Amino acid sequence: MVSKLFRFGRRQLHTIVSRDLIKPSSPSPSHLKTYNLSLLDQIAVNAYGPVVAFYPSSSIYQSSYDKTLELKNSLSHTLSRYYPFAGRFAKVGPTYVDCNDEGVDFIEACNDSPLTDFLQRSEHEDLDLLFPDDMIWYKSNRKGQNDENDSAKPLSVQVNHFSCGGVAVAASLSHKIGDASSLLNFMNHWAIVTRSHSGEHHDLSHINPHFISHQTRNVNLPKNLPDGDRPQGDIIARNFVFPNSKINDLKAKVTSMTMESGEPIMNPTRAEALTWLIHKCAVAAATKRKSGIFKPTGVGHVMSLRNNMVERLPETSIGNLVLLMDFPTSNESELTPSSLIGKFRKRKNEFRGIRNTESAIGILAEMCSDHSAIFEKSKRLEDYYIYTVISRFPTYGIDFGWGKPIKVTLGGALENLIIMMDAPNGKRSNSRWGHKSNSRWGKPIKVTLGDALVSLEREDMKIIQKDPELLAFC
After folding, report:
1. 369 & 401 share domain
2. How many domains is the chain partitioned into structurally?
3. Sign of CA dihedral 250, 251, 252, 258
4. Could you tell me if 333 and 460 lie in one domain?
5. pTM of the full predicted structure?
6. C-alpha angle with apex 221: 215 to 227, nearest 5 degrees?
């Protein structure tokens, strides 16, 4: 039993009460014992993507602990379809998953505070306690982390009970096997199996995972790829919620500014407008911290391949099905909406002709072959900001049978990473966190992109949190 104290007005206790290994309910087929990782997977960062969903107390169970056995059983049934998640791969430079059915860590913890108090009074970094073995991006308490001959678990979960009966279900998935969409689809599938009791007699074909078969894993990867030992500074993350009406004002401002400049950006999307606003303010904060001296920066926008290829993939496809569209902002004049959004659209158009995953992997292979030139170019940039959109995913449809979550978010903080997510009607929630929802996987609820989780250096965050231009749209 492990206990951790964390900060509030009073000392509060978060205690690990049990740890089990959950194996698939049926063994992996003999012809699927090896799952080759694609180039897109192998080049992904050696880190864990963390998602947590919060649920209030439910009258369905006498105790929130009664949910645990049902969650374990349904996880076992779900893993029979997500067989690579229950396997093992090398901790360093994995090229395949050994689908040996060894299982997934299932950790149970309790917190002596009510859920509402935890959500209202904690900072984002307090969420770290909710994740299994601190599997949060590059941070990890995994034993033998530096042993290259040791194996790693693709997935671990932790169920956290609050004193009021509320629950937080957290899952961490290795980025070597899947992206955010992969993890959210898994959690949604697990939830559906839970509320249908086993899933054995229900048609779950509409959510079944689509694993893409790769014929080979022999890929010559460039050196100096980011890995789990990447150093991180004093990075913190904070939520910024943009109400629907404010985003409409922001889009109108973008259109007006670009019309005046003679380089009109018509009908800017929410993602484009928010990327420009947040990037402008983040660079301004970094410049102010550096005695007012502007330094060239890079902008990277993660593009999902699922809906952007000629041959579209099922939304439940598993893997790192993304490419990075990037470009520099070499001087302050390139921070205007005309320049930044214009470059963003140009890069998007270049990627829109991709036919299938083979073509995408071919593009990435060419990028890898020129990795040294790219690496040298990136060293000339002071900071590099990555923007990604988690929208239209099954975030707020993750219903285990206790109702929909009151909050879903990612844990931890990764330097200069900005994650834009859905919010119901773009409205601010009564809680400090904000609510988000998704209509396609449950009862229809109108959602719009309007929530940004921003990770920056602590000193930059202090500045951006007081930026009047940013706050005018929050």
Report:
1. yes
2. 2
3. positive
4. yes
5. 0.87
6. 110
Domain of residue 61: give its range. Answer: 2-211
226 assigned to some structural domain: no
Backbone angles phi, psi at 298, to 5 degrees: -115, 150
The answer to whether 396 touches 422, Cβ cutoff 8 Å, is yes
Per-residue pLDDT of the chain (474 residues; tens, 9 = 90+): 555 555 554 556 889 999 999 999 999 988 899 999 988 898 888 899 999 999 998 777 666 667 888 999 999 999 999 999 999 999 888 899 999 999 999 999 999 999 999 998 888 999 999 999 989 987 655 544 444 447 899 999 999 999 988 999 999 999 999 999 999 999 999 999 998 874 444 566 667 899 987 776 666 655 555 554 455 678 999 999 999 999 999 999 999 999 988 889 999 999 999 999 999 999 999 999 888 888 888 899 998 888 888 888 888 899 998 888 888 888 899 999 999 999 999 988 887 778 888 888 777 777 665 544 544 555 556 688 999 998 777 788 899 988 889 889 999 888 899 999 886 554 433 333 333 333 333 444 455 678 899 999 999 999 999 999 999 999
Tokens read off for 138: 């590059």
Partner residues linked to 106 by β-bridges: 20, 157
Beta bridge partners of residue 90, listed in sequence order: 151
Amino acid letter, 187: M
220 occurs within a structural domain: no
Residue showing tokens 């740890």: 19
The reply to whether 278 and 200 lie within a common domain is no
Q: Do 253 and 128 have their domain in common?
A: no
In a domain, 225, yes or no: no
295 and 436 belong to one structural domain: yes
Instruction: Provide the residue type at 263 as one letter.
Output: E
Q: In this structure, what CATH number is given to the domain that contains residue 432?
A: 3.30.559.10
Domain identity same for 420 and 359: yes
The answer as to whether 217 is a domain residue is: no
What's the one-letter identity of residue 106?
F
The residue to which tokens 């606003």 are assigned = 277
Exposed / middle / buried, residue 436 (Cβ in 10 Å: 0-12, 13-18, 19+)? buried
Give the closest residue to 439 by CA, choosing from 391, 407, 401, 400. 391
